[in-house]
Specification:
Helix content is 4%, strand content 41%. The chain is built from two helices and 45 strands.
């Protein structure tokens, strides 16, 4: 039986049909097919490969290996960033600038394969992310392909319903976000529900809620399971939408730092194990690792714990206290492998994909941390430090990383007044914008690849369990 792909179905996948497109028994013939005209980031050959890739993935109809002769890659190198309420994409050298989403965009996240982005649009015109993330607010979530096409709205429209940014699972199939009604426009929702949604279904189709969660949940790598802490402190695991859950462990903390920060469960990357905090001796918080079978081991004891995040491969752990950062192994050592101070309570840190380096952005500028060398190098100095931020009312993981996918470079935004290794940043007519720097050669001046009021660049995907929390 021969079936035809409609124009609407093609637009869903960022494609435009000029002639019939049909498939028969798992073999697809594409005739007179061109990519959608909205984004032209890549070379013509790469664009056509992206079209073939999208067609191959469409409903899983093509046999595996049919496109094995094509040089398909796991993802591109585009950098995404915000400017004036729009989501922009650009090549690392500053070419190919296109708008991927516009009109009140306040947050976004790369998919793990770098082929899609989910972005949040807020209905409040005054909601501008002053930090790494904007607060939860009424609006919608949409998914757009990097190769073009119309954005797919994945959330139903409900007046006054606030939503957070969304986080991908490791497979790039499912998204996790929260929603709830706020008591006032400037306040976060008092009660939230966490939702797991498929990334390819429109307007709330195939979305499932997580029950009785009292903490930020975590998704397994394939998105088929979710873990959370219930109000009694039990760590639970279940399939999204299921009423039945398994208690993996108990006595988990719900808050940290005297109730000022939320505790949460982390899903260890590349492992079937969960990390959570419990009360330890002498007031210290203990970080406990539990397998899904219930076997537990204490990884670290951290007095004054504020937050924790795994390395991308799950082999190390980054913790944060009021005094600074600590990097731990997972063998249960009495002391961390490396410690460095941090006096900015709103500082942000991102693991490099190679796991041996971290990038820290705080009120003083940007620092590069080499865990193996036990060194911290201040790269960017911000002459005028911003005023201390007010206490955050809500917390969520960062959604994208400024690191390139190979960890060789990173992107950052600056108004142009910063000083890089003792020399002024390059500017265009006195204006800064988006910069790209080499992690291997940090003494080299960063390149100004786009000038303007650019903010919060994201170059690669970020696992929520490998991300510290950002306040808003």
């Amino acid at each position: 039986m021969v079936q035809y792909l409609s124009d609407a179905g093609a637009a869903r996948y960022g494609l435009v049909l000029i002639g019939p497109t049909l498939y028969n028994g798992g073999a697809m013939m594409i005739s007179l097919l061109r990519s959608a005209p909205s984004a032209r980031l890549r070379a013509p050959k790469e664009r056509w490969l992206a079209v073939l890739r999208s067609a191959a993935l469409l409903l899983g109809l093509l046999p595996a290996g049919l496109l094995s002769g094509c040089a398909l890659h796991p993802g591109g190198e585009e950098i995404a960033f915000l400017r004036d309420g729009h989501l922009w994409l650009m090549n690392p050298d500053g070419t190919g600038l296109v708008r991927a989403g516009g009109g009140g965009v306040v947050g976004f996240a790369w998919s793990p394969d770098h082929h899609q982005l989910v972005f949040r649009t807020a209905s409040r015109a005054d909601l501008v992310p002053a930090g790494a993330r904007a607060p939860d607010a009424p609006g919608s979530l949409s998914v757009v392909g990097v190769d073009g096409g119309a954005a797919l709205v994945i959330t139903p429209e409900v007046a006054g319903l606030s939503r957070s940014d969304a986080w991908w699972d490791g497979s790039g199939n499912r998204l996790l976000y929260r929603e709830g009604f706020a008591p006032a426009p400037s306040m976060p929702p008092a009660i939230v529900v966490y939702i797991v949604s498929q990334a390819d279904q429109p307007a709330g189709v195939a979305r499932k809620s997580l029950p009785d969660g009292a903490s930020l949940p975590a998704l397994s790598e394939d998105g088929r399971q979710a873990a959370w802490i219930d109000p009694a402190g039990d760590v639970r695991v279940a399939s999204p939408g299921s009423d039945a859950s398994t208690v993996v462990a108990g006595h988990a903390l719900l808050t940290l730092a005297g109730g000022m920060r939320p505790a949460r469960v982390l899903w260890q990357p590349r492992h079937a194990a969960l990390l959570y905090a419990t009360s330890g001796v002498s007031g210290a918080e203990q970080l406990t690792l539990a397998t899904l079978a219930g076997r537990t081991s204490i990884v670290a004891s951290v007095p004054g714990l504020l937050d924790a995040a795994f390395a991308p491969d799950g082999s190390r752990l980054l913790t944060r206290t009021a005094a600074g950062y600590q990097v731990w192994g997972l063998s249960g050592a009495a002391a961390p492998d490396f410690i460095w101070p941090e006096d900015d309570g709103q500082a942000l840190a991102w693991w490099a994909p190679a796991e041996s380096k971290l990038l820290v952005r705080d009120a003083h500028g940007v620092a590069l941390v080499d865990v193996r060398a036990h060194s911290v190098t201040q790269l960017l100095v911000t002459p005028t430090a911003p005023k201390p931020a007010n206490a955050s009312l809500s917390w969520a993981p960062l959604t994208s990383s400024p690191w390139s996918t190979d960890g060789a470079s990173f992107a950052f935004a600056d108004g142009g007044a910063g000083v890089w290794r003792g020399a002024p940043l390059p500017t265009h007519s006195g204006m800064g914008g988006l910069y790209v720097a080499s992690a291997a050669h940090p003494a080299q001046a960063p390149a100004l690849v786009d000038s303007g009021a650019d903010a919060w660049p994201g170059w690669s995907a970020l696992d929520a369990s490998a991300s510290l929390l950002a306040g808003a």
